[in-house]
Every structure is written in structure tokens, then in C-alpha cells.
Design brief:
eight-stranded mixed β-barrel; disordered N terminus; disordered C terminus; Muramoyl-pentapeptide Carboxypeptidase, domain 1; transferase
């Protein structure tokens, strides 16, 4: 599509200027607008349909003697691109109607109606972007945005005036993007899907487990689907169709493995329910998932210096130092009923051979019911009963009347001793936060072989915990001889890091990897679900390249 190719070129220009060209303009101060200016805006509103920030608009256009400010088509494209992406994400009805109205006004030829509404929409975008740190977790992982965004601050309005004074609205709008190349790459992926959406996307409906050599009821549907998903070349697809291959052959198996890998599935080449689900995921839904995850980028840190990131749906952890990836590891995260929260903290210490203070919820729901079945369960698993966390008095288990005690009225606390079967393994990584969530080792190594790894009660189990501990101590300036001693001694040892590590749990179900391949992951906590509304997925991005 011509429009899509034009947008593609627009999105490639992604380098933010260190000092925007509009930042050198001085003596620009927003003043209270006159009644004539307000009347002028109200007349423009009658032409455009609706505006929200009447006072701000009146001040801006009076400053420019009621002349248009959207001269640069790139600025229009950039504004519409960002608003259309928010619209596609399905999080805001306001941005959905703004996206539609911007397209309609741009082709209408009414410069005042478009210009004023574009400025009004830019003010909304500025306000939205500034509110993300406060409300983003609710917006992107909960309910829709229902409130009107407040007026931008005086400083923000002044910056807009400065940008318009230098005909630099493109740079200003561009600066509102998340500061990561992922935004650009994911936008390119949406454009590619919009182009593909005009093609035939068949559903593959054959039931059961389909393995290498099995008969295919409708091989053409599977072949076409694999081709559309980019894991089977057009030449291979045509060759298979010409041969009328009626069974699941080696070429298809390899294509399915590539598909499974890009969706975080078990790469065994077997078509089961999850692979079938993703093969049949609609283009419109994929576009919405990409757009939603593009908006989530506004929440996450962009720096890569002394930072540990855990992407929950990908079940992966990354440790970055000086913009270099030092360590990546598989992780186990909280099951859907006990979710790992989105939080930010600082990793301040490593505990060797830790005790485990059992959280009350786990004690009541998981451990005490087992004690009612086996009175020796606590001793078998090295649990100590304490009167409370404060005084630590040990209560002999045989002094407890287990006949009358229930999980809900059990008045004590449980602590598990260090050892091979301790739930925290050999290493605990302290990340102080209000949710009592931390990273740790685990004796249950077999779970890391699973493709889906949401099994914990909220804390994060790290496959390469021993390596992580070694790297953290090394990067903190400790002697490796000390590390070896701590590792080998059976005693509990707390080691404070001289340099703390920033820790962030994030939730991205879509991104583009370093090889340019679009990745999707299961929405393990159902955060991607959005109210069903009619959103045009084919026009939203490509419309932003219509030049007026």
C-alpha cells in the first residue's frame, strides 16, 4: 500500500535531537486569551466538531495572529501516528474518535478546522504522556481511560509555542515518543500486518495433536497460514501446494518450529491447542496487541546501566551493566492466581543459604493443609514453628493441638531452615518493596524446562541464580575468594552490595527482537484483554501519511 510505505519511511527517522531546535527560542510566554480569540476558537470548534482545551487554543492562536501552525506534513504524520497507535491499543475512546476525526479533517481541506483540532489533539497527547507515570499501570493493565486529560502545564504550553515558532512541531511531537527504538520497530510491524491484512488468512481447524507424518485434512490452509506468518517462504509454499502434499512433512514441521519459537511455545513442531490458537490469531488482534505493548513502552526504563529486568510473560531475566547484557536467565514467575506484581526496587544484598520465612498466605493455603494429612510434614521439610516474627520463640510441633487448629486460626509462623530442599535454594536476592517480592534460587530446577513458567506464589525463581550471585558480587567489587567461602559454608550469610542494582518487573507480550523478528507471548495474567469496540485496524496508521 502506498500510504503504508510512506509511513514506513516516516517511522525510520527516529533519532531524537539532543537539544530540540525549538529549545533555543526565548521570551515566549503564554498570555490570557482575549474574548475575540475564544470566539475564534469556538467558531473553529463548530467546523471541526469538538475541542477540549479552548483557553489554551485561544492563547496559542492569538499568539500566532490566528494563522495555521501545522505547515510541516511530517508533523501531521507524527501526531496522527502516535494518536492512531493509542487508538489501536484500545485503551481510550477519546483517542479513538480523535484518530478518526483527524483523518476526516485532514482530507476535508478546511485548514482552520484541521489545524485547531490537531493542536487540541497535541495538547491531549502531551497531557496523556505526562500522566503515564502516575496512571499508566492502571491504563495499560486494567480499565480503559475514561477521564478527560487535564490541561498541559504552563511549561508544556510554552514549549509547544516555542516549537511552533520555529516550525518545529515535528521535533516536538517526536519527542513525546517513548525513548526506545522498539517503538519504531513495532510500528513497522503494524504497517506490515496492515499490508498483509488485505490478503487471505485461512483458519487451520484440524483438531488433535498433529505430528510429523500425520495426514492433513486441509494442507493448503496450514501452508498459507505459515506463509502469511513469515515462517515459510512463498517459493516453499507454492512448491508444497503444487505437489499437493497431504501430510505434515518435514518442511512444514521446521516452519512450525520457527513459528513456535517466535511465540514462546515449546519448539517441538507438534501442532496442539496453543500452536493452533496462535496460528489462528487474527491480524486485527495482533495489531491491537502490538499497539498496546507500544504504549507500555512509555512506562519502562530505557537506560541499560546497572539494571535488572524481568519480563513476566517471557519468563526471562536480563542483567545489564554499562549498556551491555551481562546475563540472561530463565525465570519462574507467579501463577495467575498469585501474580508477580509490576514493581520497581533496588537489589541491595545477596543472602547465601537463606532461611525462608513462609508468607502467611502460603502457610495457610499450601503447607498447613498438608500437615493435617501428615503430622510429620513440618519436620520432614525442615520447618520450624515460631510464636511470631518479632520474638522468634520456637514452638515444638508436638505441643500444638492439631485436632483443633485450622489454617485460618493457626496463631504461629513457619520458617524453613537452609539446605538443599529450602524453597529459596542457595541464594536470595533482596529487593525491598511493598509486596515482599524478591528473586531467589530454587531446588525445583525441572520447571525451567517448561515453555510456560508461571508456577510460583509471586516471587521470581532464577535458573542461573548461582551465576547471578557471582556476577553481582564481582561487579560490586568483592573478592571472589569471599564468594567461594560464602557459597560453600552451610551458614546463612548476608552480603550487602556496594553498588545497588535497579530492578524492574515489566509485562510485554509483544516486541521485536534484535534480529528484527516480531515476538508474541501468551497473556498469562489477562492484561491484554480490552472491551470489544469497533476500531478500524487498516486505516489507523496508514492514514497518518495522507499529505494535505
Amino acid at each position: 500500500m502506498v500510504f503504508a510505505r510512506m509511513l514506513f519511511k516516516t517511522l525510520l527517522v527516529f533519532a531524537l535531537l539532543p537539544l530540540p531546535v525549538w529549545a533555543n527560542v526565548g521570551n515566549v510566554e503564554p498570555n490570557k486569551p482575549s474574548e475575540n480569540a475564544i470566539t475564534w476558537i469556538q467558531q473553529a470548534e463548530a467546523e471541526s466538531g469538538v475541542v477540549t482545551y479552548t483557553q489554551d487554543l485561544a492563547m496559542i492562536y492569538e499568539y500566532f495572529s490566528f494563522s495555521p501552525i501545522w505547515h510541516d506534513y511530517r508533523a501531521k504524520d507524527e501526531l496522527e501516528t502516535q494518536i492512531n497507535i493509542i487508538s489501536l491499543a484500545g485503551i481510550s475512546q477519546e483517542f479513538e474518535w480523535r484518530a478518526v476525526l483527524l483523518r476526516e479533517l485532514r482530507v476535508s481541506g478546511d485548514w482552520r478546522a484541521y489545524d485547531v483540532f490537531a493542536t487540541d489533539s497535541l495538547l491531549a497527547l502531551i497531557s496523556y504522556n505526562s500522566q503515564v507515570p502516575l496512571h499508566g499501570k492502571s491504563w495499560f493493565f486494567g480499565t480503559d481511560i475514561n477521564d478527560t486529560f487535564p490541561s498541559p502545564t504552563k511549561t508544556q504550553t510554552t514549549n509547544l509555542l516555542m516549537a511552533a515558532s520555529r516550525n518545529a512541531l515535528y521535533d516536538y511531537a517526536f519527542s513525546l515518543r517513548p525513548e526506545t527504538s522498539q517503538y519504531r520497530e513495532m510500528a513497522k510491524a503494524i504497517v506490515a500486518l496492515q499490508d498483509e491484512n488485505t490478503s487471505y488468512w485461512p483458519k487451520f481447524t484440524q483438531r488433535g495433536l498433529i505430528k510429523h507424518g500425520n495426514k492433513l485434512v486441509d494442507s493448503d490452509s496450514l501452508i498459507t497460514s505459515l506463509e502469511r506468518h513469515g515462517v515459510l517462504s512463498t517459493e516453499e509454499a507454492q512448491r508444497l501446494k503444487l505437489k499437493h502434499v497431504g501430510f505434515y512433512n518435514a518442511v512444514m514441521v521446521q516452519a512450525v518450529k520457527r513459528f513456535q519459537q517466535s511465540h514462546g511455545l515449546k519448539t517441538d513442531g507438534v501442532i496442539g491447542n496453543k500452536t493452533r490458537y496462535w496460528l489462528n490469531k487474527s491480524v486485527d488482534n495482533r495489531i491491537q496487541i502490538l499497539a498496546l505493548n507500544m504504549e507500555r513502552l512509555r512506562l519502562w526504563p530505557t537506560g541499560r546501566d546497572r539494571i535488572l529486568l524481568v519480563n513476566i510473560p517471557n519468563y526471562e531475566m536480563e542483567l545489564w551493566m554499562d549498556k551491555q547484557l551481562i546475563l540472561d536467565s530463565k525465570v519462574v514467575v507467579g501463577r495467575p492466581s498469585r501474580r508477580t506484581p509490576l514493581f520497581t526496587s533496588r537489589l541491595d544484598s545477596v543472602v547465601f543459604n537463606p532461611h525462608w520465612n513462609v508468607p502467611v498466605t502460603i502457610m495457610r493455603k499450601d503447607i498447613l493443609p498438608k500437615v493435617s494429612v501428615d503430622n510429620d510434614y513440618l519436620s520432614k521439610h525442615s520447618y520450624t514453628v515460631l510464636s511470631s516474627w518479632s520474638n522468634g520463640e520456637v514452638i515444638p510441633p508436638d505441643s500444638i493441638d492439631w485436632e483443633t487448629v485450622t489454617p485460618n486460626n493457626f496463631p504461629y509462623r513457619l520458617q524453613q531452615s537452609p539446605g538443599n530442599f529450602n524453597a529459596l535454594g542457595r541464594y536470595k536476592f533482596n529487593t525491598p518493596n511493598g509486596n515482599a517480592i524478591y528473586l531467589h534460587d530454587t531446588p525445583a530446577k525441572g520447571l525451567f524446562n517448561r515453555a510456560s513458567r508461571a508456577f510460583s506464589s509471586g516471587c521470581i525463581r532464577v535458573q542461573k541464580a548461582e551465576v547471578l550471585a557471582e556476577v553481582l558480587l564481582d561487579k560490586s567489587g568483592l573478592e571472589m575468594g569471599d564468594y567461594d567461602y560464602y557459597r560453600k559454608t552451610p551458614k546463612t550469610k548476608w552480603v550487602t552490595l556496594r553498588k545497588k542494582i535497579s530492578v524492574h518487573t515489566i509485562y510485554q507480550t509483544a516486541w521485536v527482537n534484535e534480529d528484527g523478528e516480531v515476538q508474541f507471548r501468551d497473556d498469562v495474567y489477562d492484561y491484554d484483554a480490552r472491551p470489544k469496540r469497533t476500531i478500524d485496524p487498516s486505516a489507523s496508521l496508514t492514514a497518518s501519511t495522507n499529505q494535505s
